[in-house]
Amino acid sequence: MSRYMVSNSRPFVPSFIDSCRLFSEKKVTPQKQIDPRRVFKVYRFPGILSKEQPKIQTFEVDVSTCGKMVLDAMIKIKDMDPTFTFRRSCREGICGSCAVNLQGRNCLACITQIPQSKTISLYPIPHMYVMRDLVVDMEHFFKGYASIRPYLVRKTQGPLGQMQYAQSIKDSLKMNGLYECVLCSCCATACPSYWWNGRRFLGPASLLHAYRWVIDSRDEDTEQRLQDLRDDFKAFRCHTIMNCSLDCPKGLHPAEAIAKLKLLISGMDKKPTPEIDPMKLVSSGDWEKKCVK
């Protein structure tokens, strides 16, 4: 007879204690202890003024003696070799300074855990001129970003510093997933189209920000922004490979933003009318008096 049946053949419902007992009888397999020692194969280059060739240098690091993030291991390596050079600042995934190529994938070292692999490769982000070790020249990337005019443009504006432009919650939500970009260039340097046409194709990060300013209900320069992007290369060299979305350390989706931007550029879609007049707070009275109240 089953342990869950009684003599009158009526089903027996196990009690909570019985259920816990059955669950506790399962054997828990202990996790295998992983050797904390890691072998880091790091790209080294002394700089363009040096006659030395780039090389791969090996460091053995006991990761149990440092933090859990890749940046902690990099700092540990710098303690071992003070000439090891890389960028870092915030340690919170906000500044975008510590972008590196880890195990063949772009990431931010400060928010990426040290892999469990015995051997770990550490390179500068690809398609960038290397200045020294993991430090790359970001000048071309930021020139492309500056070309999209990443700031609010108003044809009608009030006194600077004495007012604010109104925006509805719905219009504000349209920019979610766009303004969080920290310009680390992980997406752009993972994009084959950016590798092939980097001089004219703006790249995922710049185009994501271009879309962010185009759809901003407070901006009044939409037509000129779209006209500037009507080019065979600036936006339309995106072939939806989507490496940008895979490698974005902030979990954003540049490929989706670029697809929506293409619809606006080609005239297949239109920017929605703002739900609230951005100048509403100015026209409704004296802003200075409202601030005092």
Secondary structure: elements and pairs:
Elements: H1 16-24, E1 37-44, E2 55-62, H2 70-80, E3 99-102, E4 105-108, E5 119-123, E6 130-132, E7 135-136, H3 139-147, H4 169-173, H5 192-196, H6 204-214, H7 222-228, H8 243-247, H9 254-266, H10 280-283, H11 287-292
Helix pairs in contact: 3-6, 6-9
Describe this structure in words.
- With 293 residues, this protein is α+β, with helices and mostly antiparallel strands.
- It has eleven helices and seven strands.
- It has helices spanning 16-24, 70-80, 139-147, 169-173, 192-196, 204-214, 222-228, 243-247, 254-266, 280-283, 287-292, and strands at residues 37-44, 55-62, 99-102, 105-108, 119-123, 130-132, 135-136.
- Strand 3 and strand 4 (105-108) form a beta hairpin.
- Helix 3 runs parallel beside helix 6.
- It is elongated, with a radius of gyration of 27 Å.
- The termini are far apart.
- It is found in: Mitochondrion inner membrane.
Q: What are the key terms here?
A:
293 residues; alpha+beta; 5-stranded mixed beta sheet; two-stranded antiparallel sheet; 7 strands; 29% helix; disordered N terminus; metal-binding; iron-sulfur; 4 iron, 4 sulfur cluster binding; tricarboxylic acid cycle
